[in-house]
C-alpha cells in the first residue's frame, strides 16, 4: 500500500510524527510525505522534524501566502501533479488547515481515497477558516478517524456514518510517547518556578487580526502578568499584528519568546500553573498535562473538556477573571482513547486497502 501524507502547519507535523513511526513498522506500506510549506520558519517547521525524529519530507512545495484562496489554490495545483505522479492508494490528511483542504480537493477530483485524521470536530463560528476546512474535508473523506465520542456524534448529526472510526487522539499517543524526552531547559533559562507561571499562546485570526480585540486581550494578560509571570511563545502572525497595531507597550511585562519546539512546550506545560490559549491542540495538551486551559474562543472543538469543567472558554473581556477564579483541572482517563490511535489508524488502512 502506498500512502501519501500531506502536512503543512505546525500541529500537523506532531500528528504525522506518530503515524510515521507506526507506518515504519510495516514493510508492505510505503509512505510519501509532502510538506506544503505553509509554515516555513525553522522554528515553526524544521525543528519539529528534528526533535520528533521524523524523516525529511519527500516533497517540500514552499507554498505560503497571506490570502487563503491563493494559498489553497497553489497547493491544489502542485498536489494534483504529485498525486498523478505517485499514484497513492490513499491520501492521509490531518486536522483543519488550508493544507488539509487543498489535499482533500486534489485527491477527491482524482478519485483517490482520503483518510482524515482528527475528523468530526465541530465548533463555532462556522465561518472560521479551520471549521470550513474540516467540514469540507469530512464530507469527501472515505476514512474518518475520530479522536472523541463527541466527534462521532457530530458526524452522525450530519448524516455521515460510513467509514467513521473512533480511534482516539493521535496527539495523546505522541504525548505519552515523548513524555520521557520533554525538555525542561527553559525552566532554568527563563528563571521559572514550578506552578508560578502561566503559558500563553495566541494566533487565531478572530483574536489577532482585529486591533481592538487584540488590544483588549493583551490588556487582560498584562493585568495578569502583574500577579503571576506570563510566558508567551509568540506566533509570527501575532508578532506581526502587535507591531502593525502599535501594541508592543502591552507586552513589556510578558516574557515573550520565539516559537518553541514540541518538547520544550511540553516541558514548560508540565510545570506551569495554567494555560491561556486559542490553539485547538494546545488546550488538549494542557489537559494531558493535568493543567487547566482558559481558551480564548467563543467555542471549542474539544467540548468534552469544557463540559466537564476542566477547561474554560473566555471572551476577551474576562480573561483575568477566568484565570484567577478557575479551579484546578482533574484528569479524567481515556476521553481521547488509550494512546494507541496511530496503531488503530494504520491497521484499519491495512485491512481495508
Ligand atoms: C494555521 C492554521 C491553524 C493552525 C495554525 C497553527 C489554517 C487556516 N490555519 O494558522 O488551523 O492552528 O496554523 O500554527 O491553515 N508565518 C510566518 N512563518 C511561518 C508560518 C507562518 O511568518 O513559519 C506567517 C504567515 O506568513 C502568515 C501568518 O504567519 O502571515 C499566518 O500563517 P498561516 O499559515 O496563514 O496561518 P496560521 O495563523 O499559522
Descriptive tags:
single chain; alpha/beta; Rossmann fold; seven-stranded parallel beta sheet; six-stranded parallel beta sheet; 13 strands; binds uridine-diphosphate-N-acetylglucosamine; isomerase; WecB-like; UDP_GlcNAc_Epimerase_2_dom; UDP-N-acetylglucosamine 3-epimerase; isomerase activity
Looking at CATH, which topology of the largest domain would you report?
Rossmann fold
Cross-sheet strand order for the largest sheet: 3-2-1-4-5-6-7
Query: What radius of gyration results from the CA coordinates?
Result: 20 Å
Overall strand count: 13
Note the total helix count.
16
Mean pLDDT, all residues: 96
Strand content: 15-25%
Bound molecules: uridine-diphosphate-N-acetylglucosamine
The secondary structure category is alpha/beta
H-E order? EHEHEHEHEHEHEHHEHHEHEHEHEHEHH
**CATH homologous superfamily name of the largest domain?**
Glycogen Phosphorylase B
CATH C-level label of the largest domain: Alpha Beta
Unreliably modeled segments: none
For the largest beta-sheet, the strand count, sense and barrel status come to: 7 strands, parallel
What count of domains describes the coordinates?
Answer: 2
How many angstroms does the end-to-end distance come to? 7 Å
Amino acid at each position: 500500500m502506498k500512502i501519501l501524507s500531506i502536512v503543512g502547519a505546525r500541529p500537523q507535523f506532531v500528528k504525522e510524527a506518530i503515524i510515521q513511526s507506526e507506518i515504519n513498522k510495516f514493510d508492505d506500506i510505503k509512505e510519501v510525505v509532502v510538506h506544503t510549506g505553509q509554515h516555513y520558519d525553522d522554528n515553526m517547521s524544521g525543528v519539529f522534524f528534528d526533535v520528533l525524529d521524523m524523516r525529511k519530507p519527500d516533497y517540500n512545495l514552499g507554498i505560503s501566502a497571506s490570502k487563503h484562496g491563493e494559498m489553497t489554490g497553489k497547493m491544489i495545483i502542485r498536489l494534483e501533479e504529485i498525486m498523478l505522479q505517485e499514484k497513492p492508494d490513499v491520501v492521509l490528511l490531518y486536522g483543519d488547515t488550508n493544507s488539509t483542504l487543498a489535499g482533500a480537493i486534489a485527491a477527491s477530483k482524482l478519485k483517490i481515497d482520503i483518510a482524515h485524521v482528527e475528523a468530526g470536530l465541530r465548533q463555532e463560528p462556522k465561518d472560521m477558516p479551520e471549521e470550513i476546512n474540516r467540514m469540507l474535508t469530512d464530507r469527501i473523506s472515505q476514512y474518518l478517524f475520530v479522536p472523541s465520542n463527541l466527534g462521532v456524534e457530530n458526524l452522525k448529526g450530519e448524516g455521515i456514518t460510513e467509514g467513521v472510526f473512533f480511534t482516539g487522539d493521535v496527539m495523546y499517543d505522541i504525548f505519552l510517547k515523548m513524555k520521557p524526552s520533554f525538555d525542561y531547559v527553559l525552566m532554568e533559562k527563563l528563571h521559572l518556578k514550578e506552578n508560578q507561571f502561566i503559558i500563553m499562546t495566541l494566533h487565531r485570526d478572530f483574536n489577532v487580526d482585529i486591533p481592538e480585540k487584540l488590544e483588549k486581550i493583551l490588556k487582560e494578560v498584562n493585568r495578569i502578568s502583574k500577579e503571576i509571570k506570563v510566558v508567551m511563545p509568540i506566533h509570527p502572525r501575532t508578532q506581526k499584528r502587535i507591531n502593525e497595531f502599535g501594541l508592543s507597550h502591552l507586552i513589556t511585562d510578558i516574557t515573550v519568546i520565539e516559537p518553541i519546539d514540541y518538547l520544550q512546550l511540553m516541558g514548560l506545560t508540565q510545570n506551569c500553573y495554567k494555560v491561556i490559549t486559542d490553539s485547538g491542540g494546545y488546550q488538549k495538551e494542557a489537559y494531558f498535562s493535568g493543567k487547566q486551559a482558559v481558551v480564548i474562543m467563543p467555542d471549542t472543538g474539544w467540548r468534552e473538556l469544557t463540559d466537564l469543567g476542566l477547561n474554560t472558554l473566555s471572551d476577551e473581556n474576562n480573561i483575568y477573571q477566568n484565570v484567577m477564579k478557575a479551579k484546578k483541572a482533574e484528569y479524567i482517563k481515556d476521553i481521547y482513547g488509550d494512546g494507541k490511535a496511530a496503531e488503530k489508524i494504520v491497521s484499519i488502512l491495512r485491512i481495508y486497502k
